[in-house]
Amino acid sequence: MNICVVGTGYVGLVTAACLAHLGHRVVGVDSEPLKVEMLCRGEPTIYEPGLTPLLQDGLRSGRLSFGQDLAAAMAEADVIFLCVGTPPRHDGSTDLSQMEEAARQIGERLRRYKVVVEKSTVPVYTADRMKRTLAMYSGGAVDFDIASNPEFLREGAAVDDFLNPDRIVVGVETTRARDLLLQIYEPFRCPLLVTDVKTAELVKHASNAFLAMKISFINMIADLCEATGTDVQQVADGMGYDRRIGRAFLNAGVGYGGSCFPKDLSAFIHIAEEHGADFSLLREVRRINETRVDRLVRKLHQALWVLKGKRLGVLGLSFKPNTDDIREAPSLTVIPRLRQEGAVVRLYDPHAAVQMASVIPPEPGKVEYARSPYEAAEDAHALVILTEWEEFRALDLEKVRGLLQTPIIVDGRNLFDPAAMAEAGFEYFSIGRPDALRPRQPQAARPRGAP
Ligand SMILES: NC(=O)c1ccc[n+]([C@@H]2O[C@H](COP(=O)([O-])OP(=O)(O)OC[C@H]3O[C@@H](n4cnc5c(N)ncnc54)[C@H](O)[C@@H]3O)[C@@H](O)[C@H]2O)c1
User: Fold this and answer.
1) In this structure, are 365 and 276 located in the same domain?
2) Which of 3, 202, 206, 311 is deepest in the core (most CB within 10 A)?
3) Whether the Cβ atoms of residue 297 and residue 337 lie closer than 8 Å to each other
4) Does 127 map to a domain?
5) Is 56 in the pocket of ligand 1 (CB under 6 A)?
């Protein structure tokens, strides 16, 4: 099938490359010329495992191409996937200006029937607005359908998630649109749910809000575990074996970030309010998440007392492993807090350092970027772990201990076993688990009667 993908960011690029891999002819359109130039050369604009070969194979086979000319890109297309950004506004509601602009642009260029599909995450009823705009700008003479096909891929595993999804949700208004979308998803062997458009729009926000709730829930359990001297990982295991609950997303830590959970949660709170539903549960989920960085900083105080003048190695800048995306990453809040308190930071991430340097630039003697986790640890008073990259799990801990000025690790992602860390000679502070302090040398007994 001929497909046009509008917006080639994280979702659009993966969608375009995967659909071309499945045999469709796909043209990706983006308004950023530099992005288009790079993609035409076969250079991925994001780091995502497995993406580069799909992109380059697609270009070589001629099934995948990129451009800026929307009219040319959509001329042959039967289906247009909209993958433009839907960022948050100041009040938490969704800024739909990229969707509206895309609808206007498509409307002006509509010459024959197409299905216009919302893949971006949008509030319920967005399709109604899109339909009106498309009709207005196409002059009302051309037939089209609007559909919702929310994307559930996770950054860091996006290609695999796209090709092997848990489910596909397709919200349609006509059998013509349904048949075209089912044809695209024909090779997929997962549950395929066909709904009306509003339901599909709601599924995405409801799913992300629920996942965020699971994370905040386990983070509160972590606080309780710290207060009671128990281990949140064991509690999560004990809960997770219950199939009604499941173990996924029950990992305590420094909180969720990324371009989706924070914005989708705020958007959903807003949507619920607009429709008269009091979803204060989600407000609490957000509040709990916002307190996580404070708790991590408190742990640093517990470990180091005063941060002023201390050298801290920070491992992990992306909001999660296997991506270079730093949008709403906890590191963006943690690092300025450490700087405010006068700490000198040396930052390391396997893929997100360039992105971070554009937001928090290097400042000699204040903010430095390391080329390896070991360089970040060198002469530091503590290591702070903010992202659970596999590379950090595999660290040579003996080497790390030798490099640190004081052998302290504050782990916001619970990568290591506290007892093993104490054994290895570290003072190890993690989330929702007892702190692991090095065994103290027994003190010499004072002579009787001594002051
Ligand atoms: N990133 C994720 O993990 C993820 C997962 C599921 C759903 N989503 C949703 O998918 C949507 C896109 O997210 P993203 O992370 O890919 O965003 P992004 O910002 O990485 O990409 C959006 C792209 O759209 C382009 N664009 C904007 N307006 C355009 C126009 N009129 N014509 C052509 N190009 C245009 C931008 O230049 C940009 O490259 C959002 O609604 C998001 O919530 C994201």
Assistant:
1) no
2) 3
3) yes
4) yes
5) no
